[in-house]
Amino acid sequence: MFHIFQYRPLRLITQNSLSSVCLKLMLSRPVAFAQIWKSWFSSHSLLGKKNIILMGPPGAGKTTIGRIVGQKLDCPVIDIDDDVLETTWNMSVSEKLKDIGYEEFLEEEGKALLKFSASGSVISLSGSNPMHAAGMQHIKKTGIVVYLDVSTAVIMGRLKSMQVDRIVGLSPGNSLKDTLQFRKQFYKRWYDIRVLCGEDVAAEVVAEKVLDAVRRYQDSDLETFISTRSSRSGRSMEEDPRKYFSDVVVQGLAPDGGLFVPERGLPKFTAEEWQGLIEATYTERAEVILEKCIHPADIPASKLAEIIGTAYGENFSCSKIAPVRHLAGNQFLLELFHGPTASFKDFALQLVPHLFAYCIPRSCNYLILVATSGDTGSAVLDGFSRLHDTDKQRIAVMNFFPEDGVSPIQKSQMIGCQKENAWSVGVRSDFDFCQTAIKQIFTNSDFTGFLTVEYGTALAAANSINWARLLPQIVYHASAYLDLVHQGITPFGSPIDICIPTGNFGNILAAFYAKMMGIPIRKFICASNDNNVLTDFIRTGVYDLRGRKLISTFSSAVDILKSSNLERYLHLIANEDGQLVTQLFNQLENQGHFQLPKDLLEKLQQDLVAGWCSEEDCLAAIHSVYSTTGYILDTHTAVAKVVADRLQDRTCPIIISSTAHYSKFAPAILRALRIAEINQNPLSQLHLLSSYSALPPIHWGLLETLKKTGNGDHQVCAADMSALMYHIETLIQNHFI
């Protein structure tokens, strides 16, 4: 067995000579001594007995970066190619490959790795080590595997400049590019940490990124969450214990009624890191972005990649997941309706159930409560019904929706998506009542405590108040910008505007978070329908619900007066002033209104502009776009299109979020297309729309759901808190007991 501890890079001060240098410094310059000692101790405590194992394709710079990292940590540096393989074989790696061929080479390389042992070292793997499972399992146990992720295009350029035209796995009929792409699956299987490496980034910079990533990996306390209403001064850990990602996914709403946000903000990507994702697929972009937002102590990178692959695999009808389509002029549509339930909610709710199932303790059952104004309900029901059977036994969903406040097809869809662990309840009220009722249930400690003690069941939320719901939305906004760059529409770094039909403020907030992470979004255009409380607020700074009644519109998903996620945005621009946020939203709850301070309004108006669209203008936009392009907008996208036309200045591209498929709103669409007689049967309406051969075609998942369900049954209750609590307790008794 190989034990390698002796190879060290040259250093000005080595560990062996440290004591004499320290003695001189301690006597002559105590401050300098303290700084050097702190730096030395920090570096050595970072590594301990573990290895830092660098992994990546040939040409990623593993050897060079490994030496720099080893020098910074004053520890042994081991290059598998030079120090293990060539020493063992007494010949170069290229000669060995030529001598025995690809398959036997992998086996011999793996055997050498299995005999290798080291600790407290920086190890640079060969590009093909990860393709030998047993060898990688052996080496992974000894430390932290860091994946140097360099784009295939950059690697090919580097290999060409190095005059390398043969790598392990390259065989007749396979291109170098295909071989490099094939290898990625093996790298993704083994890494603990990913470090993005741009084309022109110096090795010194990458080495620092490696050390920063290892520090993050070892310290989950760097990524805690606070409430938007928390006042942290003078509070002990017992009064305000740390909350981590896994906690906030499960809890949803903070105990003080606020919403969870990351205490240190969101991670930032460099321009080079974003540019490295231009050629990436949607799922690859999602993996990179979400790894930075979710600490590996909560969900390891390999598990997160598995979850993302499940969420955005066969469930989506378009291979691009969230394609960007040119509409007209400088306007582009971000199509967010290719998921199983035909709305943007699928992006979060195909992912969140798996995150939730991974994070919850195994000792308790969970009931997910959801309030929906239309699209969330079917998306939640579908997402949680796709869990593994063992998870469905301990996780159930109850969806509350306004009985007469959603489209007939939306209602049929929610009824049709009911499964053994997922139910829908119609409420004889509007969405605001449903949402407020659920918030009150979560903060009713007597009721939640009773459910826990009596039935061993805890409540959780899957609405956009749950932090995990926002993260997948950040991904598609970032991906849309990268797609525009990839298509040559705009050079990287040039700004875009976005326009989003907005009700609960979650979608537009996620776009704002994407900007904070480095995507150059210039203006956020908030589009409302007749329920234009947000438009008035953004223009005046006054959020006023007094005398307002919710109006039922064709764009029902934004028929909302209380925008929950607005609280997160205000907390952010108020420099995390939890006391001010508490004051504002307590006043809204008790008096029906609040007014922003002047300085905050000025900040808000630097980011946001707003407009609203009437019902007549919505239908007219649908007709006009279809007449000129053959493309059918849904009612929400039409609202955004109308507002974008009014408010954009046409100096840069604008992306309009197309948040739902028009099939869900067939009566309104048929009316917009000026069809005289409209059959009231939802399935007949879809068949009529399909006869138009429009773009995009009828949504496959929606059509199948309606074929299966017809007019299925669901429960209906009064707009009364005790009635909702009765339904919750009854469901728990039936499912968990």
UniProtKB/TrEMBL annotation:
MF terms per GO, please? pyridoxal phosphate binding
**All residue ranges annotated as the Threonine synthase N-terminal domain in the record:** 239-312
Q: Does the keyword Amino-acid biosynthesis apply?
A: yes
Q: Specify one Pfam family.
A: SKI
**Superkingdom of this protein's organism:** Eukaryota
For this chain's UniProt record, which GO biological process terms are given? amino acid biosynthetic process
Cellular-component GO terms for this entry:
cytoplasm
Q: In which pathway does it act?
A: Amino-acid biosynthesis
**Cofactor(s) needed:** pyridoxal 5'-phosphate
Record key words, sorted: Amino-acid biosynthesis, Pyridoxal phosphate
Q: Which InterPro entries does the record associate with it?
A: P-loop_NTPase, Ser/Thr_deHydtase_PyrdxlP-BS, Shikimate/glucono_kinase, Shikimate_kinase/TSH1, Thr_synth_N, Thr_synth_N_sf, Thr_synthase-like, TrpB-like_PALP_sf
* Sequence positions bearing N6-(pyridoxal phosphate)lysine: K345
Recorded hits in HAMAP family, A to Z, give:
Shikimate_kinase (MF_00109)
Q: Which family does it belong to?
A: Belongs to the threonine synthase family.
Q: What is this protein called?
A: THNS1 protein
**Recorded name of the encoding gene:** Thnsl1
